[in-house]
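Record format v2
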Amino acid sequence: MAGVGGGNDFQWCFSQVKGAIDEDVAEADIISTVEFNYSGELLATGDKGGRVVIFQREQESKNRSLSRGEYNVYSTFQSHEPEFDYLKSLEIEEKINKIRWLPQQNAAHFLLSTNDKTIKLWKISERDKRAEGYNLKDEDGRLRDPFRITSLRVPVLMPMDLMVEASPRRIFANAHTYHINSISVNSDYQTYLSADDLRINLWHLEITDRSFNIVDIKPANMEELTEVITAAECHPHQCNVFVYSSSKGTIRLCDMRAAALCDRHSKFFEEPEDPSSRSFFSEIISSISDVKFSHSGRYMMTRDYLSVKVWDLNMENRPVETYQVHEYLRSKLCSLYENDCIFDKFECCWNGSDSAIMTGSYNNFFRMFDRNTRRDITLEASRENSKPRAMLKPRKVCTGGKRKKDEISVDSLDFNKKILHTAWHPKENVIAVAATNNLYIFQDKMN
Amino acid sequence: MIHSLWMNDQMLFSCSGCVSACTLVSFSTVLGCHPCFRLNMFSKGTKRKFSDGGEEISEETLVGARMASSYSLQRQSLLDMSLIKLQLCHMLVEPNLCRSVLIANTVRQIQEEMTHDGSWQVVTEAFCSAGQSPSERLVATEVLCRSREQDAEPKLFSVISYEGCREEEVVADETLCSVSVSDAVSNVCLAGSIGQCWEKSDVETDDEALEDSRLGSGEDEEIDTEDEPSREGPKTIGQVFGTFEIKNSSPGPDSALEELFSDVDTSYYDLDTMLTGMQSAPKMGPYDLLDSLAPSHGSSSIVSAPNCRSDLNELDHIMEIIVGS
């Protein structure tokens, strides 16, 4: 059966799953962000407990039957701790909202991780050698008696077991009154932006005590607040351009060369509303939960509650492509409003060549759309399909009438099993899907 | 009405209306159309009678009316649900701003539509007479009163402080609201004016309205209604005081003032002060005034019997001269 993301012989197969199998999921283990680095060699996840786990891909084995290298744990560290804001008597959650990698410039790896209030720059470095033969101290660290030292020797580097260390190099704090929802590294690799509900700040990676406020949509009177910022991203090539999305379903593109405060947008993207489908939930489902530029920089993709839209940056009045993720939920909006599922923020991602896009849904389903062939596929991340290299079977949701075999009806969907975070390897057909506390890795199987 | 509240792990709920609330969306679009699509569900040409009237209502109208009423039932349920969500938002440690804004916008939308329909008045009365808990009624009546008083853009959101949970204000409002429980009509106005004290910006006229409705109009009548508020008074003030930091420390430069009033029972004046201090920008803040009065007056002294009417008037008069208001 033809798949999505590659040629006609393309098939997605299970590769690995990380995380506990227990039915009882600890809140702290819930994965809150997933991100590949620029080469795809490293895969980082953040969880609600403030921890970051980095997986590294093994070198491809000589055995051809194995599809690709596997991802194994490379480093684990506690990025953020729960904090208490004494002024407001509020607890600041340690949940990692976003991780963004910096491009690799030397042997070490750098990433930015953020919770609701503080962004941290982490350096992950390897140590596989240690010096032996110090003059002034013993092998176990005790100082040697100076009178016993009769000769001088040069310490020698000896190999040791690989140790991966993560150390916080910069802490960017106290710049956000509201909850940070996005961070994005600029293409100049020197600055990055951080966005909360009402403001966007521009930082320099070297400077932690200052940031520039570039967008501020806080009204003078908070009573008049009707719109918040939901996501922001820097353009992949033009370091002066960034976009931010709102809870009203609009996207604004701003040029930092125009003014210091980019409250006036350069471009305004909004699709006119379809009056026939208007309801009390229209605004809520139009709220954009994620915005991502394509790798080419020509397009951007937005995710709202029921669909994914691809926009051409040169056309503001409507998207060029719209993909329905789970249209069968449209008749269930009232219940989804009641149980708060309507506020779930799904993310979306491009593949390396921008030919396919992926996003999550409920019941541990995730959806992929091929932009060229217009084919789409629904797959499920579950332990049942977790035999090595097992091919994933396409899933289908039955919307009404007779339910066919293997189809699942809308009312049987498990709304607690939601896939909010997915990531696509920048170069290959390898995807990482976060299902609550488990991380699934799927790969293609070339026929 | 919807029977089960939001529960994250519970998808199902029951509704007493004749159709499930899931189809609210479809109703909103259908309502604009002629309702005769349901005619085929009934036998042709049958006319039914309403129990109260001798006139025969045609089937179409009956169906239309039923649809309209279930639509408004659904809409009402949605409004209730949204208001509850907003209030629960406030009880959380730090409310999710995006979610709050979206729910508030939904409430505003419903309210606008209901205003157009003219069904807003009905709802207002229903709210006031229903036996709801003070906190629920707080938000509800605030929402309703606001739109009634101002026909223009109703500022629903003054009640919901985006600045985060302001516990002092929440407590104060609840207790003040709970004072005059009996009169349904005055409740509405009371809640409306109280709601405005959420805002930092001052509402001078509402101060007076509040005081008047609470303590009676004019100083003379102040005492007549003493009996009623006095029961609630101590509790009210105690609670309100409880949320403010009261400086019980040494008098300092105001010792002269304090000597002047040391033999005066200032219990009711404190209440007065509290109210004015809270709702407007006073020349002397409530803390200042408290400092200037006998520092030994804690909340316990407030509970004294209402036998100081003349003293209170005098005190009032004197204070006015001193403060120069």
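Chain A has a mean pLDDT of 92.
The radius of gyration of chain A is 24 Å.
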